[in-house]
Design brief:
about 0% strand; single chain; mainly alpha; 8 helices
Length: about 180
C-alpha cells in the first residue's frame, strides 16, 4: 500500500463519516422543528428562561455536594463503629448499616453504590457451580462457632480437591495462602 492510497482510503472514510453526520444532524433538526408546535422565538425564550433557572440553582449544586459529603461521612462512621464490634453483634451491625445504605439513609449516591455492589455479588454468585452455591448458602446460614468453622474448612478442602470443578480449584489454590487455618 502506498502513501497516496492510504490518504485516499482515509480521505474517503472521513468524507463518508462527515456525510453521515451531516445527514443525521439534518434529520434530527427537521424532526425537532416539525414536532414543535410553537414558533422558534418561543423555543429561544424557553431556552433562555431554562438557562436562567439553571444558573440560579448553581448554589444548590454545592449544597448537594456538601450533603453528599456529610452522607458519606455518616456512612463511614457507621461502618467503622460496626466493624469495631465483635462476633454476632458485628455481623448484625454491618448488615444493618448495609440495609440502611440500600434504603437510602445515607443518600442516593451511597444507595446506588450499595445496590450496584449487591447486584454484582449476586451475578458473581450465580456463576458459581450449583453445589458450591448450595454449600456457601448453608455456610452463611450457620450460626458462628466450631461447627461453622469445620464446615468452612470442609468447603475449602473440597474446592482444593477439585470437587467443585477445575476453575474453582484454580481459584482456591490462588487463595490458599490468604485463608486462615
Amino acid at each position: 500500500m502506498t502513501a497516496s492510497t492510504l490518504k485516499t482510503i482515509v480521505g474517503r472514510r472521513l468524507w463518508i463519516t462527515g456525510l453521515v453526520l451531516a445527514i443525521a444532524a439534518a434529520l434530527v433538526s427537521a424532526l425537532l422543528l416539525t414536532s414543535s408546535s410553537q414558533p422558534a422565538s418561543a423555543s429561544i425564550t424557553q431556552t433562555a428562561s431554562t438557562l436562567d433557572s439553571e444558573l440560579s440553582q448553581a448554589p444548590a449544586a454545592s449544597d448537594d455536594k456538601a450533603d453528599a459529603k456529610a452522607d458519606r461521612a455518616a456512612f463511614h462512621a457507621a461502618m467503622k463503629a460496626a466493624r469495631a464490634l465483635k462476633g454476632q453483634e458485628r455481623v448484625d451491625a454491618v448488615k444493618k448499616v448495609v440495609a440502611d445504605a440500600k434504603a437510602g439513609t445515607y443518600g442516593d449516591r451511597i444507595a446506588k453504590r450499595a445496590n450496584r455492589r449487591a447486584d454484582r455479588n449476586a451475578a458473581v454468585f450465580a456463576l458459581l457451580p450449583d453445589e458450591l452455591q448450595a454449600d456457601l448458602t448453608k455456610l452463611r446460614a450457620m450460626e458462628p462457632g466450631d461447627e461453622r468453622k469445620a464446615f468452612r474448612q470442609e468447603v475449602r478442602e473440597k474446592a482444593l480437591d477439585g470437587d467443585y470443578g477445575d476453575k474453582v480449584k484454580e481459584a482456591a489454590e490462588k487463595l490458599k495462602d490468604r485463608w486462615k487455618k
